[in-house]
Amino acid sequence: MDWVEERAAQVLERVPPWLWDGEALPVPVEDIADSVFGLLIRDVDEMGAAPGAPELMPSQELSGLLLAARGEIWVNAREARTWPTRRRFTIGHELGHWEMHRDRQTALFCRATTVDEGQRPSASDLEEEASRFAAAFAYAAVADGARARESRWRARPYVQDVSDKRGGDVAAD
User: Fold this and answer.
1) Measured between alpha carbons, how far is 50 from 164 in angstroms, rounded to an integer?
2) Where are the beta strands (DSSP E) in the chain?
3) Residues sharing a CB contact under 8 Å with residue 131, sequence separation 6 or more, in sequence order
4) pLDDT tens digits in sequence order for the chain, 173 residues long
């Protein structure tokens, strides 16, 4: 597990059980961003209206952005309506920026490298890290759940044997 995946797993560990049980899918990314981090999620039709947003060509658009100083994640409303799973990924991606990059910039605009080719080389690395965070955020829950189910399955014969020997007072999940 690399550092980005570890960071996503650490975030998931901080989620209180009343918000998410650690297994249910999909992971409630918006609720986590709101309740754990205090971030406001806004579905916005005009992403270019964000303070400091880069000027976009007619064929370009932003999927999401983090306004760290304001504690807001803006999500492209058109994309969200068309593709709800994309919305969850975008929120997870921006949450990755919040968790890993917010000290570097006050605003992070996703897909900015397609807008300004002259950006610092590290901008694409930041985007890649945030995308890996979003994927790991969702995947970690799936992988952990699979490992837990596999572990219970392997333990079941032993638990059943102990239960039989004790007269049935040990329960297997």
Assistant:
1) 65
2) 40-44, 64-67, 72-76, 107-109
3) 93, 96
4) 789 989 998 999 999 999 998 888 889 999 999 999 999 999 999 888 888 777 777 777 888 989 988 999 999 999 999 999 899 999 999 999 999 988 765 555 555 343 344 444 355 688 889 999 999 887 765 655 544 444 444 433 433 443 344 444 433 33
Contact 73, 34 (CB under 8 A): no
Residues 59 and 68: beta-carbon distance below 8 Å: no
Joined tokens for residue 87: 């919305």
The whole-angstrom distance between residue 114's C-alpha and the CA centroid of its chain comes to 22
Looking up tokens 């333990």 gives 155
What is the amino acid identity at position 69? Answer: A
Name residue, tokens 């916005």: 44
Handedness of CA 95, 26, 74, 46 (dihedral sign): positive
| Longest distance between any two alpha carbons in the chain, whole Å | 73
Beta-carbon count within 10 A of 71 CB: 14
Q: Count other C-beta atoms under 10 Å from residue 87's C-beta.
A: 22
